[in-house]
Design goal:
The complex is a heterodimer of chains A (about 400) and B (about 140). By secondary structure, chain A is α/β, with parallel strands linked by helices. Chain A has two domains: about 140 residues, Aspartate Aminotransferase, domain 1 (Alpha-Beta Complex), CATH 3.90.1150; about 250 residues, Aspartate Aminotransferase, domain 2 (3-Layer(aba) Sandwich). In chain A, about 40% of the residues lie in helices and about 15% in strands. Chain A is built from 14 helices and 17 strands. In chain A, the strands form five sheets. A seven-stranded mixed beta sheet of chain A has the order 4-10-9-8-7-5-6, with helices on both faces. Chain A has a four-stranded antiparallel beta sheet with strand order 13-14-17-16, with helices on one face. In chain A, strands 1-2 form a two-stranded antiparallel sheet. In chain A, helix 2 packs antiparallel against helix 10, helix 11 runs parallel beside helix 14 and helix 12 crosses helix 14. The N terminus of chain A is likely disordered. By secondary structure, chain B is mainly alpha-helical. Chain B has a two-stranded antiparallel sheet with strand order 1-2. In chain B, helix 1 crosses helix 3. The N and C termini of chain B lie far apart (about 30 Å). Classes of the chains: A alpha/beta (about 400), B mainly alpha (about 140). Chains A and B meet through helix 12 of A and helix 2 and helix 3 of B. Chain B: InterPro entries: Fe-S_metab-assoc_dom. Chain B: This is Cysteine desulfuration protein SufE. Chain B: Pfam families: SufE. Chain B: Belongs to the SufE family. Chain A: Its cofactor is pyridoxal 5'-phosphate.
């Protein structure tokens, strides 16, 4: 399997060499990729693992007696252990492979449909991605539970006083993202978990935007569920992880019926397999799971502390440069935020700015970022979002800033 | 004044865009065209007239005058407005059947579909679809 080199110091030039895509041109300009919060790029070390899987040991797992199946099963289960260790999960069987964050959320939401009763309350934050709003709305419609919302404040943080007011012994579940995808705000999940546990509720944290920057320890957090996607952290799309406390995972019914998730099947009755297979019906994304493990190896070799420190440097540099542009407003100015800048220029539609930036080879996201409630709060159609990763540079930020100025001149 | 055919107008637009050397000039021209758009009456800027598939909002309204369809439109994004202006120039004031028969490959020729992002391109496709839907509706009405 591809080895992962350990850099002695954080050397962005050498890191960039790991990412073949960063060499390409877009509209005849060198690519400046600032859409990392949507999906991160893939290092050669992970690409090699994917190629090796399909070239060398592609097989279905868990049931085959032949060599390839054994090798694929071993690699897949080793990847599970890598995830377990990375997030400090007590047991491998609590580390469930999913198709991504949305899948993980839906496993929990559909399970709770069997547990919640009319009048129970679930709490969701105003900073959520649609994927962490819609499943709970559906759940509440189905069960008669009541959905409550933690309001946000003008600087893009959650109102914790209001949150405490929402809690009661009716609170069964709280759903919050660790980091807001639209604004980059790092939410005080430790506080939210502690207060929710005090009233007997459980907390699901959507870690999709946090996992590429913050190495979460699920036991230290004492979180009930934690979900992530591989493709935000140098891995492939279509694979993710759901961590759950054992008591919850035992209680929740299976999400899908099919192969892998059964123990005994007769036409009279089927008994379900134990964890994690109860939630892993059907042939999983085997290669994706293995590559997810390789992506974690890659990022851990660089070191999450190094990554966070460098990205923070990029964030501060970009914030200062962008703020110097007349008429530019940054949305979300929490003290605790990841390397995401959501902004608009007065009188200009974000989509126009994004279109001009694309012509200049700069990839940003424009629109509501699947977080319409946040856009409604600020009364804007959307924002331009530049999100940085550890392989980006200050020189690239200079290209962005010059591009925004050029767009502003053309469009106003 | 004799009204030019859709094909003639589209050819004219293609020739105008050929005068520019680079994308920036083309975009600047498109922004100028956007500003000259026959603006939609405020009363039609409602969800009923909005086109789905655009990240920016687009409203299109059509009226039949002397057996010809007159389009008015608006958008909250200026580049989008430029694109609509080009479409309206091409289709407004034409009979429904001509609009239905019209080819839209000139969009490719002026480099718009190629140079706009996929989501935007979808918006462009939706706009053309909406214009054609109006043509179908008015043709059906005229047939009754």
């Amino acid at each position: 399997m591809a080895s992962v080199s350990t850099p002695l110091t954080f050397d962005v030039k050498s890191i960039r060499k790991d990412f073949p895509i960063l060499n390409r041109k877009v509209n005849e300009k060198p690519l400046v990729y600032f859409d990392n919060a949507a999906t991160s790029q893939t290092p050669q070390q992970v690409i090699d693992v994917i190629v090796e899987y399909y070239s060398n040991y592609n097989a279905n797992i868990h049931r085959g007696v032949h060599a390839l199946s054994q090798e694929a099963t071993d690699a897949y289960e080793q990847a599970r252990i890598k995830l377990q260790k990375h997030f400090n999960i007590p047991n491998a069987y609590q580390t469930l492979f999913t198709s991504g964050t949305t899948h993980g959320i839906n496993i929990v939401a559909s399970g709770y449909a069997e547990i919640l009763k009319e009048g129970d309350e679930v709490v969701v934050s105003a900073l959520e991605h649609h994927s962490n709003i819609v499943p709970w709305q559906m759940l509440c419609e189905k069960t008669g539970a009541v959905l409550k919302v933690i309001p946000m404040t003008d600087n893009g943080t959650l109102d914790m006083d209001a949150f405490e007011q929402l809690l009661s012994d009716k609170t069964k579940l709280v759903f919050v993202n660790h980091v807001s995808n639209a604004l980059g705000t790092v939410n005080p999940i430790e506080f939210i978990i502690e207060k929710t546990h005090a009233v007997g509720g459980a907390v699901l944290v959507d870690g999709a935007q946090a996992a590429p920057h913050i190495n979460a320890d699920v036991q230290a957090l004492d979180v009930d569920f934690y979900v992530v996607s591989a493709h935000k952290m140098c891995g492939p799309t279509g694979v993710g992880m759901l961590y759950g406390k054992e008591k919850w995972l035992e209680q929740l019914p299976p999400y899908q019926g099919g192969g892998e998730m059964i123990d005994q099947v007769t036409f009279e009755k089927t008994t379900y397999a134990g964890l994690p297979h109860k939630f892993e019906a059907g042939t999983p994304n085997i290669c994706g799971g293995i590559a997810f493990g390789a992506a974690l190896d890659y990022m851990n070799a660089i070191g999450f502390e190094n990554i966070a420190a460098y990205e923070h440097e990029l964030l501060e540099y970009a914030t200062e440069k962008l703020k110097a542009i007349d008429g530019l407003r940054i949305y979300g100015e929490s003290k605790e935020k990841t390397a995401v800048i959501s902004f608009n220029i007065e009188g200009i539609h974000p989509y126009d700015i994004g279109t001009i930036l694309d012509k200049l080879g700069v990839a940003v996201r424009t629109g509501h970022h699947c977080a319409q409630p946040i856009m409604d709060f600020y009364k804007i159609p959307g924002t331009v979002r530049a999100s940085f990763a550890f392989y980006n540079t200050k020189e690239e930020i200079d290209v962005l800033v010059a591009g925004v100025e050029r767009a502003k001149n053309m469009l106003s | 004044m004799i009204m030019s055919s859709i094909q003639e107008i589209q050819q004219e637009i293609v020739e105008e865009f050929e005068m520019f050397d680079d994308w920036m000039q083309r975009y600047e021209y498109m922004i100028e065209l956007g500003k000259s758009l026959p603006l939609i009456d405020e009363k039609y800027k409602t969800d009923e007239y909005i086109i789905k598939g655009c990240q920016s909002k687009v409203w299109v309204h059509a009226d039949l005058k002397d057996d010809k369809i007159e389009f008015t439109a608006d958008s909250d994004a200026i580049i989008t407005k430029g694109i609509i202006a080009i479409l309206i120039r091409s289709f407004s004031g034409q009979p429904p059947q001509e609009i239905l028969d019209a080819d839209t490959s000139f969009i490719d020729e002026i480099g718009l579909k190629e140079h706009l992002s996929p989501t935007r391109a979808n918006g462009l496709v939706s706009m053309i679809k909406q214009i054609k839907l109006y043509a179908i509706a008015y043709q059906a009405k005229a047939g009754n």
